[in-house]
Structure formats: structure tokens, C-alpha cells
Fold these 2 entries.
Entry 1:
Amino acid sequence: MLPDLVDAVGAEHVVAGDDPAVADLCADEALGVPAGKPAYVVWPADRDEVAAVVRAARAAGASVTARGAGTGLSGAATPDDGAVLVSFARMDRILEVDPVDAVAVVQPGVSLEALDAAAGEHGLTYPVHPGEQSASLGGTVATNAGGMRAVRYGVTRAHVLGLEAVLADGSLVRTGGRLAKVSAGYDLTQLLVGSEGTLALVTEVIVRLHPALPCRRTVLAPFSSAQAVTGAVARVVGAGLAPSVCEYLDGPTMRAICDNAGLALGLPEGLLDADHLLVELAGRRQERVDEDAEELAEVLGSLGAAEVFDLPAGSARRLVEAREKAFWAVKAAGADEVVDLVVPRSAMATFLSRARAAGGTHGARVLGCGHAGDGNVHLAVFQPDPERLAATLHDVFAAGIALGGAVSGEHGVGRAKAHQLAAFGDPVALDVLRRVRGAMDPDGTLNPGCSIR
Amino acid sequence: MLPDLVDAVGAEHVVAGDDPAVADLCADEALGVPAGKPAYVVWPADRDEVAAVVRAARAAGASVTARGAGTGLSGAATPDDGAVLVSFARMDRILEVDPVDAVAVVQPGVSLEALDAAAGEHGLTYPVHPGEQSASLGGTVATNAGGMRAVRYGVTRAHVLGLEAVLADGSLVRTGGRLAKVSAGYDLTQLLVGSEGTLALVTEVIVRLHPALPCRRTVLAPFSSAQAVTGAVARVVGAGLAPSVCEYLDGPTMRAICDNAGLALGLPEGLLDADHLLVELAGRRQERVDEDAEELAEVLGSLGAAEVFDLPAGSARRLVEAREKAFWAVKAAGADEVVDLVVPRSAMATFLSRARAAGGTHGARVLGCGHAGDGNVHLAVFQPDPERLAATLHDVFAAGIALGGAVSGEHGVGRAKAHQLAAFGDPVALDVLRRVRGAMDPDGTLNPGCSIR
């Protein structure tokens, strides 16, 4: 296989998988997913090189795993042993930002930060903020990444208008376009988004951009229970306030992220341990945002918020950033697993309560925060014993599924949750998706250990 | 097959396909698609009866076509000869409107009008308005229907959160849920939306609702060219005005729809024949909508609008309704075909110009209107000679595809555009989608004459 890979990308862009220089590339940020042992790591420069790599690997019976920035939380970028690991680090160009059609055309190795900055030069924004702006476009397309702004703008899926990708047989496919809408056959774009490199390797992405909203107000409201927060979220969203951030944080998580960020909000001591709702409003005109913030404060006050803190811009920005980094805070605090379940918005508090009860049964500490507007709950689970951790996770997932939830809201399935998806997904749907996968990759070349199995 | 169908739905809900009573059910509203000759028409009452019908048809080697309200424009509800035509007219219940999660759960036979009215009782709206509010939810899911409000809210695809459906083998599958977002395996919901009854028969739909926006202002601006309208659209959308309607109408179309609706706008005679931009703004507070309407008028004036008419509420409503009925106006005027191409928003005027030139070459009259904010152009083509009509359409489609377009923006492929999709779609993508179809329906039971072939 090595000569073919060298032919494909050039000798200087192939490294053996056991070279210590590539050790950091053999895993992503998922807790509990061990690093893979790829045969080779390659850095293609363009679509043709990606196609040649896939053909070379397939001919040799090796699998292929795509890797963006490696910031994923489910192990989708962790290669199978013996795989060819394809880094998109060299395919990192923003090919075009088009303010007339409000789209950008980018290579998969572009970071969210770079894309958003380029869009900003035209008064536009790419509003997918999954908590790590160094994430690559390709990685976020593969995992259908979400984040805090999804409550207003939707997840990655809502922004991908077209793709260019290499299929398992090395052929190049183009889907969608610079088109706001399309109804011309099954939507292959949408099938590829969230498929975690198991159906194709994305080589180019056309995304929708939005007008930037320069004016903001951010409000923090401590409540006496998660149930009260859940009720408030429905009212805030239902009132049409269209928050750009609508986050739940329990007391310990709030304390952890403030500690981690060195952030002192100046809350009265007792209130820091409350159940918090953090809401950001954004708009084109400051006076409207201010007026909405007053309406928001009234709604939250009437629903039993202990206080409604109107955060100064600096504190607001730092708190939102600290919340985005919550994963790192709980990782630093020694969390053994981070759960990314999604449930109906109205069921968030019930789910949290049942998850904590499951933790209690198995001696695990369970902290929570979440994208409250979307019902997407992130739980940090502290239980170092592997068996008791597994038992806790089983009960937590079962509780979420029983409430109508799904095993991942935004981190994806990857390797970390493939067995939970198999256990808790609709069996008929899984059978269909296995057949779809088989039809698109009959030899199991693309990321075989990942996603639908 | 008849005894099995009678077993499935009861004798009173099966009628032979050649019974004159069902003649109206054997076609939809697509121009140029002849009525099919189904073996039987059946009216199942629930998911289990749908499954039994599919099993009975498959066992007999007959195909199955689903039919909603029959308002489709591409022949997707027109059965193959010998098919079992499944009417969803009896499955027309709104099972739930949930204002807390802002979702509705409906059977496929529910009309858009009924759903929007039920949502309205909770201060919510289902904003998919494809021009015919008697359309069924199931039909709009099958075709991924769009319409005028898509510029603000997105098409049907953006609103479907979960499905229950019967697969080709009669098994029942459930996808998604009351979940604002999900990243748990390939998105089967999105694969089924727009698949026109070729992958599954939908038996239940979970849709997202939005807060209703009670305040409106509507502006009509005649320009001297379609190019000027296209330029204005980019500015209106780019300014963040988030129009709820953003329509282009050429002079003849404006005249036809006003005549058809008996609507006198009182425009100076010369201006009626201009290229028109119709923009509706909607919001929660009238003073903001008024302020935005003033900003809009300034923008349009600065871009060369001959006038900016602030339409009184009654005229505005009637004009928007008349535009929604444009298909009927051009049908009444004798149009031989209606084209539904989508191109990049910025390419709309160029496409219109090339389409008219193609009409000139083949002696066809080509009128146009379109969802300008989405680049979705509807052309009425007048050319009674079948060969010259076909030549015109070929050149029109080729022009749209050359500009980066797709063969359908919102009407779907159905039978009417299956050959255009085959001719103009990405061949690798079509091959993939054929394999997906084969994996899900290996015997070709579901609507075989339709969509990807």
C-alpha cells in the first residue's frame, strides 16, 4: 500500500502510523475511546489526492478514517487499527465568501474561527459554535455539530447547502449547490451530514451564512429547580424572543466553569449553587434588544427567578465562553464520561432528575448543563470504576430514551456511542441504515468501527 | 390481491381502479402527466392497515403509490398502471399540538390549513405555505414542499423532526422525535423527506411550529429589469430584514394574477408591466415592522425602484394570495408547462433572460415569477407543439443547470421531471441514490415510475 500512498500524496506527506510524531493524531477528545493504531497517516492536498488515497487503501484492504482538527467528542476521527488516517490539515482554504448569495465555499480543513472571521469581513457570520472554534468544517459536517447558537440558527445540518465528496470506490460526487432550497431527488447532502466519514470523505463544503447581529444583551437567572428552568425556557422561546443562547447550568457546573475560567460573577454565595438559566439576545438594533431584554426579565421574574442579573458585556462574553469550555472544565475536574443526550425540551428537568437518581444508584456523581432551548443535556459523570460507570451510563441512556430522546444531540455516535445506538435506536431504522451503508460502502472501507454497525 | 386488500382495510374501503368514482384520484395537478390506471384504490385507517396494504401489493407483485390531497405539481401521486393507490384521506387527524415543545404530531392526511389553524389556537404557526393550503402534510413531506414563506422559515425539510413510516416490506420504522436536534446516525428523517413515496409511506409526522407573527407590512416595488430586482433581493436579505415573502413577478404574470383574482392594485398603467418585487415583513411588534418597512423602502428606492408602494393590508393579503394561486392563473391562461427550477439567488435574472431566449428560439412564450429570496423560479411555458415544447424545456433546464441550478426547487421530481433529473443530475450522485433506493426497496414496490430511476 505504501507505494500507492506515496504516489497519491507524495513521500513527504505519508508517515507510518507508529511514528511518535503522529501519536497525537490517533485519537480525538472523546473520553474513554483509546487511540487507534493506523498503518499510515497521509495529508492529501486536493480532492484527487483524497480519491487516490481511498483507492489505494481499498485495494490493500485497509480502512480509511478522516480527521479534521481532532476536537470531536465521540471518537469518530479515531482510526481503526491498520487504517489509513487522512488528515485534512493541508486542505484548509476558504475558496470563496459570496455576500450576494450569502454562502461560503470552503475546504474541510478550514476552522470555524477562520470561516466566521472571513464571513465577518462581509457583515456575515457562520453561526455554528460547538464550543471549540478550532474545530474544522469537515469535522463539524461529519458529526453534524451543534452548540449554543443552534437554538436560534439550527445545527450544522441547517447550514450545509452542498458538498463535494469522495465515495468508498474513489469516485467523486457533488451534491446540492449554492441553492437555498432544492427538491430534486433524495437529499444526498443531508445523508452525508452526520455520517462521520462512513459514507464518503468530504472534500468541499458550501455553507449558508447569516447577517451578523452586532447588538447583544445577556441575562442570568438563578432558579430554585431545573423544573423551573425548563418551564421558563418554553415561555422564552414561545414568546418569540428568539434567543441566540439559552443555556441551563446546575450549581456545581456553574461553579466549575467559573473556577476554570477565573471568572467572578459577584453573585451572592447562595445563588451560585442554584439552577441557572443563561439567555443571550442578539439583534440588529440595540434599542430593540434592550426592550426585549426587559420583556425577558419580566417573564423570568414572573416565573420565579430568584434574581435576574443583567450581565455587563465583558462578564457576559466571558461566561458564554466559559460555558463553551465546560467540557474542559469537567475534564479537568476528572469526569469519567460526558453524556450528550437530547430529549424533548419539556423533558429536560425530568431527565436530569432521573439521570442523577441513576448516578445515586451506582455511586456516580452526575453534574449537568445543557442547551436548554434544544433539550440537549450534557452530563459529566464521575465514577472511576468501569463497571459501575457502564451501569450508570446504561441507566442514564435508558432514562433519556424512555422520555423520547436520542443517544446524541450534537457530539455524534463515533466509536464512543456505537453500542448505545445499537442498543437504544429503533431496530428497523438501524437495519435500514445498515443497508444504506452497505449499498454505499460494500467492502466496509470507510471508518468501519464508527457509527451504524 | 383483492381478498388481501379487503382483509387489510375492509371491503368498503377498496374500489377498483377503473371505477369512474375514483377517476379524479388517478392524477395530481402536474401538467403533461397523464392519469395512471391503478388496479385498486384503498383508504387505510391507520398504520397497521397501511402496512397490510403494502404487504398485499408486494405479495401480488403490484406497486404502491401514496396519495395525499392530490395538489402536487410533478405527478408523484400519479400511480403506475396496475398499482395500488393508497389514499390517506381517512388518516386526517391532528394527534397533538404541544405548545411547550412547539411541535405538532399529525397524520399524513391533515391539510396545511387545518394544521396551521390548530397551531394558531396556541399562538403558533406552521409556516409552510406552498401555494395550496388544502395540500396534505404527507404530500408536502413527500415532495419537500416550499412556498413563499420558505425565504424566512425554510422548506418542509426544515420543519420535520420525526416520522413514522411503512417500508417496502411492510415493516414500521420510527425516525427522529420531538427533538430540536439529533446526531445519532444517518438522518433517516431527512432521507425520507422529499423521497415522494419511493422509500416509505409516511403514516405520522412530527413537525416544528413557530411563534405566530401578528404584525405585517407589505411593499410592492416595480423595477426596470429582473436584474435590478435580483440585486435588490440580495440587499434586502443581506440587511437582515428577514422578509417573510420576497417574490419576483414579471409584468405579464402580475397582470395575469391580478386579472385572475379580480384584483385592481391601482398602479399607473405603465408600471403594471414592470418587473416587480413584492416584499412582506412580519414581526411581533408593529412599530418595529413599520420601522423596517421604512428602511426597506429606502433601500429599494436607492436601488432604482420606479416607485415603492406601501400596500394597504387588504390589497396586500389579496396580492399575496393571488401570487400563491399563480399556477392556477397560468393554467387558466393555457400554459403548457410550469417549470420549477432553482438557481443561486444571484443568478435569477440571468436565468430568466436565458430561459426567455430559449423560448424565442423555439417559438415559445415564457413568463416568469419566483421566490426571489430563494432563487426558485417558476416559468410558465406556452408552446402547444409537443416537440417544440420539449426542445424549449431542454434548453431552459440546460440553462439553469449551467448556472449551478437544480431541476426542482420545491415541486419535486415525480414523473414529470424524472427524465430531466436523469439527464441533468450528477451521475455519480444518481448512481448512489439508485443504490440507496435498491437497498430500501429491492423489488421496486414503491412508486417505481417516480423520482430517481
Entry 2:
Amino acid sequence: MRISELAAATGVAVATLKYYLREGLLHAGEARGATQADYDATHVRRVRLIRALTGSVGLSLQQARAILDLVDEPGDDLYETLGSAVSALPPPTAEPDPSEPDPLPHARAAMERLGWRVHPTYAGMAQLDRALAAASDAGLPMTDERLDAYGRAMHDIAGFDLERLPGDDPAASVEYTVLGTALYEPVVLALRRLAHHEIAGRMLHPDAD
Amino acid sequence: MRISELAAATGVAVATLKYYLREGLLHAGEARGATQADYDATHVRRVRLIRALTGSVGLSLQQARAILDLVDEPGDDLYETLGSAVSALPPPTAEPDPSEPDPLPHARAAMERLGWRVHPTYAGMAQLDRALAAASDAGLPMTDERLDAYGRAMHDIAGFDLERLPGDDPAASVEYTVLGTALYEPVVLALRRLAHHEIAGRMLHPDAD
């Protein structure tokens, strides 16, 4: 397809597509004479990925580039690559202070409680630590029982997600992991609020039709 | 305690406490002479609530006031009050267009699939619809199987949360619902990322010690 058709297929303006091409975010089409090029399904998919990262996910083009680089060159260790890709997503977290003997005490205790083996410097640890500290400061600390219940539910979801990882295709695995992490997070939170609403209705309005 | 002690107990500056008092967000202390007042544990708790709403939760004072008003006057229908309080939390969602015959098609289909009975105009519906549409636009639509898995996990969490609702104390119920919704959301998302990390480690690095 021509660039105008790629624009129509993706809803992205031709000028923006040309910008992606110049910046090397989008691979060149196959040359058809001096001024035309031919684009295919790989271009459509790539443009959708760029749009998702810079749109719904809310990354700058520079931040998106870090993830696109990992899609393009996933390297030999898929586990490390997936961790790096997810760590490039919001929210930004400060690096833990290495001089601190126990820099993320809430998160570390939570992982011990759950028996999860994670890298102590994985970005999710700083994210969890901050979240647990905020709950505690507000007078609503996570109890062990709540941590068990939440941990079990999240482990169920994560198991479902990873069963569907296209592990024999590293580039597709990075794409799936990044988009699946970022785009399903708002789904998770909306479903939690709706589940509260649904159960509260049955508890507090048991006779409603 | 004196206002300086309330400041020390909550970590909030005296000038800020006086501002809360003037604005009516914080109830007056008991008068002790012409220029002094005595504060107690109810003031500490209220200041913590205001700080959580305007700090971690990220509300403006005006938005926090809407929630504080519901804590102060929960009204007769706790179910309605809890729904209004949660709807006052971020993210803001546009009202569905009432002239549209099916304004939130993704969310409606999801609730039908899950068999959840919810108000079709509850704010969580617009939130879910937008999240499902974004995932779909990015080429990663929620399948029925994924919706089932996520819905089951969120229903488990919500059941745990609502078993602990202090239902005989409406003000405490509003406070618990608002803070528990907002403050545990970042915990949920961090746990999901860590669960992915943990399972990916076992799948991709099975021999690591």
C-alpha cells in the first residue's frame, strides 16, 4: 500500500508517518521508483504500536523509542528484556538508594510473605514499596490477609497472561508484554471498582430487582 | 492536644491546619480560653484523611471536599453514597451521551458476559469502556477468556474488601471505601507487575537459584 493508504489504515496523518520514518521509529517501505514506497501489514502493526505507546500509554516519543528498540533487538535473555521493557512504562520510580541497608522494606516484606522470587532491584519493587507506604501513612496499612488475597488474585491474572506469551517470537513477546501490561491495567482497576459496586449492591440493596 | 501538637502528630504545618479550619474541612477543637483550642484523635484522623486525598490520591482541595461532605453526611442510602464517593475519585470520566442508544458498548457487553448487575451509568462503566476500547484499538482486545479470568480475580479482591466494610458506621464506611479504592489501586498494579516478573522468571530462567 502507499503511504496515504497506510495513513487511512491506521488513522495517523501522512506527515506524522513521515516523521516516524525520518526518526527511524518506522522501518522504510519497499522502494517503488524515486518518490514512492510500498508499505505492508508490518508497517500497520508498527504504527499501531507507536500510537498505543504514545497515546493510551502516555509515553513521550523518546520513551517509546526505548521500548521499540527492545522490540527490534530483544537480545538473548528474554526475561531480562521483558523486565527492562516493563520498567520503561509509567509510573517512573526512583532508583533505590544502594547505600541504604534495606531500601524497600515494605515491598521486601511483602515478597517474603508471598514467597515470590523477584529481583530486589526490579522497578515493580519500588512501585510496590511506595504504594504500601502511602496506604500505611493514610492509616490503612495492608494486612497480611489482604496481601495474601490480593497477591493470589494478581498471580492468577499473571499466570493467565504468561500462558499466552508468544515465547518463540521474542519481538512479539516484548510487544505483548508491554501492551498487555499497560493497556490492561486500566481494565483491572475499572473491573475492581465495578466488582465493589456489584457486591455492595447485593449486600446493601438485597431486594432490588 | 494543642494545634502545634496536632501539627507534630500529623506532619501538617500549623498554617495549613488553620487553613483547613477556616475552610471548614476540619472541625473546630474544643475552646480552651480565648485563643486556644484542644484537639483530639478525631482531628488526627481527619487531617490524615485530607492529606491522603490531596496527597497520594491526587485530588484538589475542592475535589476532596466533595468526598469529605459524604463522610460528614452519608445520607440514608449507603449504597448510593459509596458509589458517589468512588465516582469522585480519579480518573475523571465523561458522562455517557444519553441520546446514544448504546453509549458504552464494550463495558455493557463485559458486564453481560460476567453476569454482574451494575448501574449502567455508574462511573466505573465509562472507565471500563474507555479501557476496553483502547486495548481494542491497539490490536489487543480483551477476549472473553481473559475477561473471565480478570473478572474472577477482581471479584475475589472486592469480596475480601467488602467483608471488611464497617457497615454499621456510615462515615467510616465512606472513608474506608474511598481510601481503600484509591490507595490499594497502585498496590494492585505493582503486584500484577511483580507476579508477571515472578512467573516469567520461573518460565524463562527455570534453573536460576
